[in-house]
Amino acid sequence: xxxxxxxxxxxxxxxxxxxxxxxxxxxxxxxxxxxxxxxxxxxxxxxxxxxxxxxxxxxxxxxxxxxxxxxxxxxxxxxxxxxxxxxxxxxxxxxxxxxxxxxxxxxxxxxxxxxxxxxxxxxxxxxxxxxxxxxxxxxxxxxxxxxxxxxxxxxxxxxxxxxxxxxxxxxxxxxxxxxxxxxxxxxxxxxxxxxxxxxxxxxx
Length: 204
Prior knowledge:
Layout: H1 13-32, E1 54-60, E2 66-73, H2 79-85, H3 88-95, E3 114-118, E4 124-127, E5 131-132, E6 140-141, E7 150-155, E8 162-167, E9 173-178, E10 188-191, E11 196-200
Antiparallel strand pairs: 1-2, 3-4, 3-11, 5-6, 6-10, 7-8, 8-9, 9-10
C-alpha cells in the first residue's frame, strides 16, 4: 500500500499546538536539569524495566517484507548495560520515557524507504510505507509494522492522559499514539527518532 498522505501534512492546528505543548514541557525540564545527560523522565519515573519471559513478535527483513511470527525471549538489561549500549539521548528517550525536541531528530523528515527498528533490541517497529508528514517535527506513522511488535499503555504524566507506545521485545519507550491521524487508521503514532534506528531498504 502506498503512503496515502502527501508531504504537505495533514495535522490539525489543535494537534500541532498539543504536540508543541508536550515538547515545551520536556524542554523546560531539560533546561532546569542541565541537559540531556542528566535529565530524568517526567515525574521522576524510574527507568523502564523488561520482565523476563517470552513474547511473540513478527520478524521483517530490511526490505520491510514480513517473514514469520516467532516467540523470543524479552531483552532484559540493567541500567548500566543500557547506558553502555545507548547514547545519553537514546537512554533518556527509550529507557526513561523522555521526548526529544521537535524538529531535531534524525528521521522526522526522512523520506527514504526502509524499516524503523528499536534502537535497544533491533525489533522492527515501523515501516516507511506508513510514514507521513504530520507537521509536528517527530516521525509519524498511521500504524506500526505489526501490532505484535509494539505494546500500548496509559501514560498520565504532564497532567494529561495519553497512550504510550513501547517495543514489545524490550519495553523500550518509542512515543505516543493519537487519534488525529490520516486514513485508513485515523491514528498518528508520534515517535522519537532517538528510539529507532532507520535501515534503508536494499537497492533504494
